[in-house]
Design goal:
This protein is an alpha+beta fold. Helix content is 48%, strand content 24%. It is built from seven helices and five strands; from the N terminus they run ααααααβββββα. The chain has helices at residues 13-26, 30-39, 41-47, 54-67, 74-85, 87-99, 159-169, and strands at residues 102-113, 116-126, 131-139, 146-150, 155-158. It is elongated, with a radius of gyration of 18 Å.
C-alpha cells in the first residue's frame, strides 16, 4: 500500500472513475474504494495502457478485495486456477521439462467477450533466446470461466468446445 494518504480530490480522472464504479456497482464506501485502489495501485500502474476500461479494473479489484487477495499475488491466483482447470497445460509442461525448457504465463491485458470481462493470459514456452506461444487463455476476474483462443477459428471458445474440436482433429 502507498505510504501517502490519498483522497478522492488528488486521484487521476481514471482513478476517480474506478472509485465511482466501486461505490456504485459494488457498494463500497468512498474510503473503502480508495483503500482498494491504493491496494491495487501497483497492478493499475503495471497494466494500464490506455485501452483498459475502468469497469474492468473495478471488477478485478473488487473481486480480489472480496477474496482477500493481495495486490501482489493476483497473478499467482490466476495461474493456480488455470493449472487446476486446464489439464492440457500439465502435458505441455511435462514436454517442456523433458526438453529443458520452462513454462511461462504472461498477462496480456483485458478483453471483453460477449459483454463479459476477461484477463487475456499468454501461455507458452520460455527459452533462453525466445518464447513460443502454446495458447491464449481468457479467464474471468472471479476465476470461474475460462476460454481458449482457437487460432483456426480465430475466436475464443469454452474449454469443452475446444476439447471436442481438438478430439475431432486427432
Amino acid at each position: 500500500m502507498e505510504s501517502t494518504i490519498r483522497t478522492f480530490q488528488n486521484l487521476s480522472y481514471f482513478e476517480k472513475h474506478i472509485v465511482q464504479i466501486l461505490k456504485s456497482s459494488y457498494l463500497h464506501s468512498e474510503d473503502q474504494a480508495i483503500h482498494i485502489l491504493n491496494e491495487y495501485s501497483n497492478i493499475l500502474a503495471a497494466l494500464k495502457d490506455g485501452h483498459e476500461s475502468a469497469n474492468a479494473f473495478a471488477e478485478m479489484f473488487d473481486h480480489a478485495y472480496r477474496k482477500g487477495t493481495s495486490g501482489f499475488n493476483w497473478m499467482d491466483n490466476i495461474i493456480d486456477s488455470l493449472m487446476r482447470e486446464v489439464d492440457e497445460i500439465h502435458s505441455f509442461k511435462a514436454d517442456l521439462d523433458k526438453a529443458g525448457s520452462r513454462l511461462m504465463f504472461r498477462y496480456e491485458g483485458n478483453a471483453t467477450i460477449n459483454n463479459k470481462n476477461y484477463f487475456r493470459i499468454y501461455v507458452g514456452e520460455s527459452q533462453e533466446t525466445h518464447t513460443l506461444r502454446w495458447g491464449t487463455l481468457f479467464i474471468t476476474p472471479d476465476l470461474k470461466e475460462i476460454l481458449i483462443d482457437d487460432l483456426i477459428i480465430e475466436e475464443p471458445m469454452s474449454l469443452m468446445e475446444w476439447r471436442k474440436r481438438k478430439q475431432k482433429l486427432n
